[in-house]
Fold each of these.
Amino acid sequence: MIEARGLTKRYGGTLAVDDLSFSVAPGKITGFLGPNGAGKTTTMRLILGLDRPTAGRVTINGKPFDEVEQPMRQVGALLDAKAVHGGRSAYNHLLCVAQSNNLPRRRVDEVLGLVGLTSVARKRAKGFSLGMGQRLGIAAALLGDPQILMFDEPVNGLDPEGILWIRNLMKALAAEGRTIFVSSHLMSEMENTADHLLVIGRGRLIADCTVDEFIAANSQQNVRVRTPQPDQLAKLVAAAGATVRENGDGSMVVSGLDPARVGDLAYENAVRLHELAPVHASLEQAFMELTASSVEFHAGVPEAEQPALAGKVA
Amino acid sequence: MATTTAARPTAGIGLDLLRSAGRVTFAGALRSEFTKIRSVRSTYWALIAMFVVVVGFGALASYGAATHNPGGPGWDPTRQSLAGLYIGQLIIGVLGVLVISSEYSTGMIRTTLTTNPHRGVMIAAKGVVFTVVAFLASLVTAFAAFFLGQALMSSHHLSTTIGSPHVLRAVIGGALFLTACGVLAFGLGLLLRHTAAGIGTMVGLLFVVTILVNFLPMSWQNDIDKWVPALAGGQVWMVQPQPPGSTPMFGPWPSFAVLCGWAALAVVSAVVLFRRRDA
């Protein structure tokens, strides 16, 4: 159980984490979402005691991490793939980490096998690809067979095979009853893996709920309709309080009514329908809507490109 | 024991442990830091370079003295054979900085501190391991330089023996001098957390300051020299007192204590900051 109360971190004039309170429940995958610069990494650094909070506190099973007696038995963390001395072999890297917690040497061989690095164990980490570096970092995190695992943007920069491997590993670890706390700015990743979500923007917590609740609460119900009488249907649904958007392909998207209500309206008014389909809002879309106001650096997407983005989401 | 691990399903990842395993202890931290220092090439390069340069220059200086210098009232064959220590201090200093600054330059520090968040234990272990390794390598180096130098000078009857008064103290003192310079550098590396900045400051403090004080008026030097780290530390590996006319220094051991004081100042301030700072 990770618990933060009023956690705040200020770097000079920048408020990176602003009065965060949350708990990460055991035995689940909790996704930690936010746009780049939202304070995800800072929060993880605060949990792990790398940085000291300006105010508030964060504990692991009731204790600040730097007071935990068996740190690697409690928490395994992968903050970034390159937190390794490149001149040291993978084996020696893991050995020195294991020794610092009095973990037996055989654990090094075990985790090397687990992440598939046995054949390069004696090679210096300098020559490792990003994916191999990621595996080495995960091997170090697993050395102590920890109850809690923390991953900061674990799929960043990985090829599809690497992404799949990490996704399956997280699911397997969660299935063993472990607590997984994983950050990402990729909503689609969370949709596939997370049970619970913590969403932050500009250092503040903006949502703490399940994935389904998050989508339901933060995105409107959309219905795609195709009809030979578009003007008539548009008037009908508008009168019922929905909004209509024309798609370029002759179909239209009705927002604010469920599919049954749209079908009934059409039937009652003798409007023929050729297609009636619910459009499931993705986490991506819900996230965009929620964090639109809390992105630190707006890229300034030109107006003309907005419909294209919206289309991709549906 | 068995019950603690059986409580949880552990497909492939599980760990059968004695109850004591998994705890952070000072002994474990020492083993970890020893693995670190022995598993990177820079340790070997630095120590081999130190040995070759100190012994090599000592041999050159001794051979030169044997063929050119008839000796004299201030003649100190021990000091002559250990002359390479003037360069050796910088090489051990580079290693002292690197031992800690490489944790920061490579990002290893994030793994180190997220797996052992007990910073005091970790940094004490690193300091002890470096100090012991540096002292043993320095001891071998100092004795090798001494015996080779004396062998080269013996044919000209300029040499001394390890049993002569103060000679053993001076040779061991040479090893202690190198070790203290390394520890000072370790403190600077931890304070600055940057390899180039650490090495630059170390060279400045041990080498450049030593040269610069020569340009000050003699009356100032009389007050300053005994406090300059490398000048003070150098007293412990000399058998003869400084020749007449040179600036007054403390005795060998008090002078060495001055160097140790500088090292302690660097290390203590660095450790205090290290325990408080964001990593």
Amino acid sequence: MHSFTKNFLKGIIRSNPTFILLLGLCPTLAVSTSLDNAVGMAAAFIFVLLASNIIISLIRNYVPVRVRIPVFIVIIATLVTIVDLILQGFIPALSKSLGMYIPLIVVNCIILGRAEAFASRNNTTNSIADALGMGVGFAWAIVLISLIRQLLGTGALDLFGHHLFTVPGLADNPVTIFLLPMGAFFAIGVLLALFRWMGVSTGE
Amino acid sequence: MSNLIAIFFGMALVNNMVLVKFLGLCPFFGVSKKLKSALSMGIAVLLVMVVASVVTWPIFHFLLVPYGVEFMRTVIFILVIASLVQIIEMTIKRTNLTLYNALGIYLPLITTNCAVLGITFINIDQAYTFSESIIAALGAGAGFTLVLIIMSGIRERLDMADPPLAFKGTPIAFITAMLLGLCFLAFGGIIR
Amino acid sequence: MEVRKNGFYPVIFLTLIVFISIAALTVTNAVTKDKIELAKKDEIAEMLSTLFPEMEGFTYDEKGDLYTPLAKQQPLGHAFMAEISGYSGAISILVGLEPDTTLRGIRIISQQETPGLGARIAESFFLQQFPGLAMDDIELTRKGGKVDAITGATISSSAVVEGVRKALLEKLDQLRRET
């Protein structure tokens, strides 16, 4: 059990995929314009990461070394397409706002990275822990960034149609730049600096 | 003709892959520290983007659509890209060893470059014709290379500058990207 | 596990994985296909009902690229999509026509204009200027028309106005040729 917890926890802060490993930034920045998008993307991501880690760790002893990357890619691409189709059919609004970033999960360095670095070399239980840890790490990172962007960019916070709260004064004069791509760069730059300053080392 | 020009500049500047569409960020921050590597990576990506577009467009329109299996798009495209990168790598290795050594490790990395898969998707989603797709890929690759070169030039200077300790390295790179993005915003509206 | 080093095994394995992938996706596709079709139809219906709130259903003429919203089996008018180039990218506009082909109104379906500036073309204060406009009046006020541009978003406003007028001209022409 100890190794399960250890593998789970490392993805959350110490080896956080977004802030420490600096992986999978494309969807994180692209999609974090609203809380809904962030939560949707995080859910899709965790599903794919978990499923792929499980499957790959199950077949790890049978995969020939020479074709392992294509095999991983096919498995991940299949999982991603399944998620894409399900979203299109059952949550079309989310599918529309996340757009092509859902299929792009397939080239998300985090998933392929974990498959290659961990799931193909460790047993299924630990792979599940690793996936969950990395997934949660990614999730809270993208939610944090979108919180900042949506709050500062629109002055209000909504989640799936439920209005959470409005910052008085800010709603009339929001810092719109945060909704633009450059706002995302700014937000993550400042956050990274913040983490540095708090003593957590970043992967340089 | 003007349509093609609009697509090229649209992809390269207004809808720049990195600064606007957020594609190709990993190499952007990983490789942009030195001008030489930035240039190599940019050209390699441009090459793969164009070849990938040339190959995936017919596959989609003449194979996937007629058989009603558009949903296979993601799997097929990524496999095509992975294979292309392998083939290109081997070809360069055989024909031009110096080029191969210059591009070196960057080639395999291109497989997971979201910008390459991204442009193949964009070609389909925007319903581009075959020639439009090629121009779009050229534009996207050019824009990517441009931004990479600018970024590396800035970062080479930044390394000698003295930002607050917490910002040193990657964080200041992001802030720089933001400023760069702001500048590229000015390109909006040139397509009229 | 010496067999792993054998020349054919890797290829066989990869092919097997690809086949499993195709199978899994075909199944998923079969399961979700109808839902996706339905979702798309719902999306179009929702879009049309922003201009025709009393609509109960619609038909689509593929050849003429024209929607006909219906209520109690009677056409309420027509609608079509206009795709134009805005300041920061493509803008999709739904143009609605009354049965007598006067302009019923427009709705912005998708746009990537600057939030707070160009993006305001989707707001009602801008859109409400369109219903009932005669063809010659579909122009910015500073050019002699009746549509006030959005302050600070001249290019976006102009793009919409020009785009709607052009698309309307083309569509009316097409309709005239068909009748």
